[in-house]
Amino acid sequence: MDASLHEGLLYETRPDGKVRCRVCPRLCIIAEGKLGICKTRINTGGKCYTLIYGKVCTVVADPIEKKPLFHFFPGTQVLSLGSLGCNMRCIHCQNWQIAHANVREDTGQLRELAPEKLPPIAAANDCEGVAWTYNEPTIWLEYSIDGAKACHTHEPPLYTVFVTNGYITQESLDLVGPLLDAYRVDIKGFRPETYRFLAKLKDVDPIFAAAAAAKHKHGCHVEVVTNVIPTVNDDDETLRGIAAWIARELGEKTPWHVTRFFPYLELDYLPPTPIETLERAVQIGREEGLKFIYVGNVPGHPNENTVCPGCRRVVVRRDGYQVENIDVREGRCAFCGEDLNMVQSLVAGEKQG
Prior knowledge:
Elements: E1 6-7, E2 11-13, E3 19-21, E4 29-30, E5 41-44, E6 47-50, E7 55-56, E8 58-63, E9 77-82, H1 96-99, E10 111-112, H2 118-124, E11 127-132, H3 141-153, E12 159-164, H4 170-176, E13 182-186, H5 192-199, H6 205-216, E14 221-228, H7 236-250, E15 256-260, H8 275-287, E16 293-296, E17 306-307, E18 314-319, E19 322-326, E20 328-329, E21 332-333
């Protein structure tokens, strides 16, 4: 057996020799020698193994604002990790070279990085945390669990982040959620047909359920991103549905990032999102009660800044990924004391794995 294989945590064996993976809601049934939809889980000898444990193709120090996370350790650097594979097949994926890759065919992109090495690498690069990002972290479950444990037991502890499409089973989330400090989730639409078109996905309910559980069950800081695509998810009904759901299920102070789409991959025939559409999304979000709506991929837009909903002063001023000032003290406005739902430090004793 290949020594690089790592047995998966969540799967069922079947009498016919196939295995059912339980990591994401696709619940792939995998025959001997075959791969799941994510192209990273293989059936070998009637057991399910991950092909990407400890294997990375991207390791870079990023501003946390790039994830984007605006209310979580603003102004800090985060060690950002990516591997190969994804459990969606988005037709506009910006990272398709790695997300749509087949691990068995593209091994040249990968190198070994043991989870216990993450904290010293982060510290050496002035990073205050580690993010699993660039490809889908759900399919990296075993590695992210071990890496998050290493981050939380490090002195000083490092924060941990999932940048995710949200397509994860509750069973998987129950394993990794207690080890995550932030959960940045994409909400691509509000109707099943939108996800069928964009991501070849039938069932979207698990995405919304997981985001709510990440916040309310596992205590993660949650932020939501919607890449607003002309003619796909830019109608008022969709935007209002997403905004209302965030306010109702995650809370009115949950940040919502509405980002500008640029033509790419199979959607290269569409125009970039008009800025007016994003500004309409901001207005819709406000009408639904959201306090923090950000415009993304439009450098210099005033809605990059954090404005206190209490005194209306700018408390975090941004220019792209650069943070120019932070007038926030322990998550509250430095001017009026309003709670901004902003995390600036890890609570001692929590999320220690």
